[in-house]
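stage 2 :: seqdesign
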């Protein structure tokens, strides 16, 4: 596993950048120029692609630089990224494993325009039958909450298309927020507007037939699909820069920024479907944002990292 502290993703060298985040260039030891970590100001209005880039950065930071935790072979041949979005992860993993062809699939053509030659972006629906004639050493999906209707079916396809000894790995955030309990100084499930808001979003996503919280369920689903050595790690993600540890303060600050920026996009479809008019929704979300910025709550939520291996032994399912 690569455990170096992440700086800016190598993709940043290649991708056209929008104006609202600022970057600076540094020289690396090898003499190449690479962009330093992006700086996002709390007032920055992010484009969706930039929000995904911010989330890619903060997740990688939380995982101490690792792009995956599955112990895949050091020279993989094929890697698949489901719902690749802008392709941040696919591009970084392609740079890390030049031996591999990395396929990034998404229903939307929102991928970066410049990328390494071993990346293939494909526009497709991962819930449709897969037509690949080859298998993958690693199948990865991140932040697909609300995107997938039938996870067991998706994982059955992933199992079929994983090489023997290969891995599937998923990274998903929880919708449940925890806040400081002043009496015990431990964390308890948040009550109040943040919990109310996140429940409404989760229920609304469910009403559309999608799974809003796959994180806690993926361990069981992977095992049911046939994967072995299924392992789950749960990482605390502070919401806000209130923590004692410097690296977690940075993760928390970026997490808060991504949430503050993303809640309108996350809420729009669900709230309008529930009959809210736009004005009432914006007033409500202003209260949610105000509460999110209350540092005394010392809020956190969870990042689930779940992976499983396809056994070398051929098992019939
Ligand atoms: C929240 S984004 C996460 C993107 C990326 N995995 C990341 O971590 O930055 C979810 C992505 O899943 C894509 N998506 C949703 N449903 C999909 C489907 N059925 N097949 C392929 N992609 C899908 C969306 O277009 C979107 O780009």
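stage 2 :: out
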């Amino acid at each position: 596993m690569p455990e170096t502290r992440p700086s800016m993703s190598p993709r940043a060298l290649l991708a056209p950048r929008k104006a609202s985040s600022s970057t600076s260039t540094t020289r690396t030891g090898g003499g190449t120029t690479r962009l330093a970590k992006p700086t996002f100001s709390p007032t920055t209005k992010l484009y969706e692609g930039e929000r995904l880039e911010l989330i890619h950065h903060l997740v990688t930071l939380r995982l101490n630089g690792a792009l995956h935790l599955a112990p895949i072979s050091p020279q993989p041949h094929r890697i698949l990224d489901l719902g690749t979005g802008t392709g941040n992860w696919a591009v970084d993993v392609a740079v890390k494993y030049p031996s591999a062809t990395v396929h990034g699939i998404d229903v939307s053509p929102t991928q970066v325009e410049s990328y390494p030659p071993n990346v293939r972006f494909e526009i497709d629906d991962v819930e449709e039958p897969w037509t690949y004639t080859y298998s993958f050493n690693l199948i990865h999906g991140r932040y697909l909450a609300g995107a997938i209707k039938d996870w067991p079916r998706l994982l059955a396809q992933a199992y079929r298309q994983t090489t023997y000894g290969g891995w599937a790995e998923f990274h998903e955030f929880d919708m449940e927020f925890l806040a400081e309990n002043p009496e015990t100084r431990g964390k308890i499930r948040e009550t109040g507007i943040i919990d109310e808001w996140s429940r409404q979003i989760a229920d609304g996503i469910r009403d559309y037939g999608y799974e809003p919280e796959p994180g806690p369920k993926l361990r069981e689903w992977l095992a049911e699909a046939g994967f072995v050595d299924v392992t789950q790690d749960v990482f605390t993600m502070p919401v806000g820069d209130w923590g004692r540890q410097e690296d977690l303060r940075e993760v928390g600050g970026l997490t808060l920024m991504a949430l503050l920026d993303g809640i309108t996009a996350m809420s729009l479809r669900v709230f309008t479907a529930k009959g809210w008019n736009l004005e009432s929704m914006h007033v409500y979300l202003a209260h949610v944002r105000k509460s999110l910025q209350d540092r005394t709550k010392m809020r956190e939520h969870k990042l689930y990292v779940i992976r499983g291996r396809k056994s070398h032994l051929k098992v019939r399912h």
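stage 3 :: structure notes
- The longest helix spans residues 246-273.
- The domain at 67-317 is CATH 3.40.50.150 (Rossmann fold).
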